[in-house]
Amino acid sequence: MTDEIVVQAPRSATWQVHLDRSMWVGGVRGLMLQALHPLAMLGVWQNSTFQDDPFGRLRRTADFVGRVTFGSPAEADEIGRRVRGIHKALRITDPSTGRTHRVDDPELLLWVHCAEVSSYLEVARRGGLGLNERQADRYLREQRRSAAYVGLHPEDVPGSCAEMDAYFKQARPALRVTEEAAATVRFLLWPRLPYELRRLSPGKPAYFPFGALCYYTLPEWARRMYGVLPEVPAATVTAALKAFRLGMNTLPEPVHDRAFMPSTRAMLAGARARLGAAGYDVSKGLKGLTDPRRWPAAPAA
């Protein structure tokens, strides 16, 4: 990944999706979808503090996605090495068979990747981000680079909407709602706040509509498997998602970015500085770069 690719990145489909604030819904939806893979769910259950700190898990995922999207080549390579090193050291014990599995098993990594990036893309498009099918395919092709950072071979990763649909069709027979998966979805609908956020407890009931929105954006087959909430009309879900996206996208970037870890905010500040030096108008922050009028003129062919 060269510096040229970095400064051209605002022109990519990836930036259009990952700068959209619907990513918060997509991230939680992705966790709910990932939980349907029994072995992947065990990997989270046995090797993380997810039950105690779900927001930490979401913020760490946001940090990884942010660094491989907006970070410098060195930052992206560094977090890729870190994630691969962590995964390489972790194991999963299947209590039903007694077998031990590697967390970095390519099948598991592929499931986690596909559940995550398909959630980002589908939620953003349904929420109103105007990506046509060709641009959606381009996003998935670009995400093969993200998959390579966690240790997958890009050619093994779906690179179009048709390939992603075929992947899920092939994967579905192995999915099921385990005890851990059911507990995870219930938890994501009504999470326990970490200690540093306990002061927000009085406002916790306001979280449930957000968690429910994430749940209702799942594919119909996934909602049927879970059966946690009664079905509502698809048009109602789409309208709620569009309203959430519209509201979040109006937040000033400094306010929105407070949700990220300090190290993530520092990385984003570095990205703004690099892009400003490359001729992009960053007066409205990175979010402003979804407007092509803030890009420098493309070099002549």
Automatic annotation (TrEMBL):
Its EC number is 1.-.-.-. It holds the Pfam family MPAB_Lcp_cat. Residues 15-241 form the ER-bound oxygenase mpaB/mpaB'/Rubber oxygenase catalytic domain. InterPro entries: MPAB/Lcp_cat_dom. The keyword Oxidoreductase applies. Keywords: Oxidoreductase. GO terms for molecular function: oxidoreductase activity. This is Oxygenase MpaB family protein.
